[in-house]
Amino acid sequence: MLNNLIGAVMKNGTDMFVVDNKEATVEAIKTLKTIMQSTLKLVKQIKEQKDNKVDQKETCQNAIKNLFMLIQTIDKKQQTILTKDLDYLYKHCLFAVVRVRDNNDYEFLDGCLDVLAEITEGWERVGMAVQKAPSFG
Length: 137
Hints:
Number of strands: 0
């Protein structure tokens, strides 16, 4: 089951992650968790930098880069509910950050923070489950 979950979400082979064994999968999940945590931190900073537009623009750009990276990790060939949902949620967060950067519109930012926190927690749970799995594949 874990193999199907990881395979549906992360690209294999020469793309971003190689997940053909347990160790590689654990490392890929650690990398995703790091990107998620960084993105969550950046979006929180965007909200805190409401009065500092110069720093906020740079923070927005960094968050946008991370969100594009997360979108690229999705194996869209799989066409599963999970891949479609993650793609939609990451793009929603991207939209929220772009709205702040371009229009100074914070309306969607709290929703983005909630989404990122939930997905980050989900990847942490997946990582723990993979580490505890007796075998993989």
